Amino acid sequence: MPRTESAVSAGILAPANAAKREEIVGLLTRAYWMEMETVMSYAANAAALDGIRAQEIAESLDADVTEELGHARKFAGRIKDLYGTPPGTMEFTPEQTYLQPPEDSTDVVSVIRGVIEAEAGAIEHYMRVIEACDGVDWATQDMVVDILRDEEGHLRQFERFLAEFE
Ligand SMILES: [Fe+2]
Ligand SMILES: [Fe+2]
Predict the structure, then answer these.
(1) Residue 150 C-alpha to ligand 2 middle, in angstroms?
(2) Where do runs of H (alpha helix) occur along the chain?
């Protein structure tokens, strides 16, 4: 059993906040899986795309793989800080039906739409995490605000791509 008794009397590590901590660990675990699935989806789609029109999208996705993996690491580290255990792969359930590499490898628009859906889903979930942390877990909130800013940047970038391709 992990140690869950803390010496501090204030903040998210305080024994009095154990229930809140459990709730936040649950939200962070979901965030971790969303990032990990995004890593897989972006890597696969970047490799799958063909054609001159797709090249910039593929390169952008490849760069984002690294950034999303960095987010996953941050979530795993914060789960650990909150007396949790980052999940093992057997707990993984895929959800990104909309980010399967397209049958037509030149279908850039469907990939762009899939990325926008993934980023929008991340933004919505991270808003929930930020709100859950309010007043009790400033450090998680601060971390997730930074990550939210990255995802909003990704969303806007792919919205601009979509505008160009349509
Ligand atoms: Fe991310
Ligand atoms: Fe992202």
Answers:
(1) 6
(2) 18-48, 52-81, 108-133, 138-165
